[in-house]
From TrEMBL:
InterPro entries linked: GAF, GAF-like_dom_sf, Phosphatase_reg/MetRdx
Signal peptide: none
Lineage: Bacteria, Bacillati, Bacillota, Bacilli, Bacillales
The protein's name in its UniProt record: GAF domain-containing protein
A GO CC term attached to the entry: cytosol
Similarity comment: family membership: Belongs to the free Met sulfoxide reductase family.
UniProt xrefs under Pfam families: GAF_2 (PF13185)
TM segment ranges: none
Sample GO molecular function, one term: L-methionine-(R)-S-oxide reductase activity
Annotated ranges, domain GAF: 51-155
Length: 159
């Protein structure tokens, strides 16, 4: 029989291991593109039921596609537009159960059903976002958000 508490304990331990793997992967590399590339690959390998994992970076007042794993994506996103642009304008993570119910959702991949976006901060400014899409509705929960935010906090130390 499925035990949610045992599942959550395992999920939490896996996320803790993921954070350690991230630190080991990027601690000696100063290049942001290399670190974003490897961290997106690490997340894509670790997470199940996702179809896109990557970054958008702030450039000249808009988000521009950065390193990612998945199908080709939208190249530029205006601040305040879609889930990524909303995460920037509000400077908070956005966890969307059903992207089709999100006003102004930008559909880069028609298979995406749910999404989580975590802002990347430096000197109290958003410099980019982590964007993860899933082909399943309501894929991301509180624990995913908590640990993906911790993942980004860890990454921010090396930026």
């Amino acid at each position: 029989m499925f035990e949610p508490t045992a599942y959550n304990a395992t999920k939490e331990k896996n996320y803790q291991l993921l954070i350690k793997q991230l630190e080991a992967l990027i601690e000696d590399e100063p290049d942001i593109i290399a670190n974003l590339s490897n961290s997106s690959a690490l997340l894509n390998q670790f997470l199940d039921d996702v179809n896109w994992v990557g970054y958008y970076l702030m450039k000249e007042g808009e988000l521009v596609l950065g390193p990612f794993q998945g199908l080709p994506a939208c190249v530029r996103i205006q601040i305040g537009s879609g889930v990524c642009g909303t995460a920037v304008s509000k400077q908070t993570s956005q966890r969307i159960e059903n992207v089709h119910a999100f006003p102004g959702h930008i559909a880069c991949d028609a298979n995406s059903q749910s999404e989580i976006v975590v802002p990347i901060m430096k000197d109290k400014q958003v410099i980019g976002v982590l964007d993860i899409d899933s082909p399943s509705l309501n894929r991301f929960d509180d624990m995913d958000q908590q640990y993906l935010e911790l993942f980004i906090e860890t990454l921010e130390k090396y930026i």
